[in-house]
Specification:
Shape: globular
Largest sheet: 5 strands, mixed
Number of helices: 4
Strand order of the largest sheet: 1-2-3-4-5
Helix content: 25-40%
Structural class: alpha+beta
Order of helices and strands: EHHEEEHEH
Number of strands: 5
Distance between the termini: 49 Å
Strand content: 25-35%
């Protein structure tokens, strides 16, 4: 299997939109999903990065993160269900951490759903410490 990790480009927007909307748990109670414009804005924002993993020419996973001077917030890590348990998520995380190393960023913050035990296990195996538990609130406005 040929695997390439790279920054997302305009040509990836449609595939990323489908990938990010394939798991409604990403959005919590909001569940509105990502539109192509949301993905395009994220890719173009100089304070954010989207890394994609191509496996045999097909988009198999993505990682979105906010970058700040002294820390980064990992927004989303998603792997296509057909590519799970094949090291895609690990490869994306390793690439992301190498990027942070080159920038001298030493702190990563991540929030995940309390029932997302897969992500929690991945984070704990990579040495992340569990912090406070938060409760998410949302409300639709008319």
């Amino acid at each position: 299997m040929t695997r390439i990790i790279r920054l997302a480009e305009q040509k990836d927007i449609s595939a990323l939109t489908i990938l990010f909307n394939s798991d409604t748990r990403i959005f919590g109670e909001d569940a509105t999903g990502f539109g192509e414009r949301d993905i395009a804005e994220y890719i173009q924002d100089g304070k954010k990065k989207v890394f994609v993993c191509e496996s045999d020419g097909r988009l198999s996973g993505a990682l979105m993160a906010d970058y700040h001077d002294s820390y980064s917030h990992l927004e989303t890590l998603i792997v296509d269900p057909r590519a799970q348990q094949q090291g895609v998520g690990t490869a994306l995380l390793e690439h992301y951490e190498k990027d942070l190393d080159t920038l001298g960023i030493t702190l990563i913050e991540v929030m995940t759903a309390t029932d997302n035990t897969v992500m929690q296990k991945i984070l704990e195996e990579r040495g992340f410490n569990k912090g406070n538990t938060f409760v998410f609130y949302s409300r639709w406005r008319k």
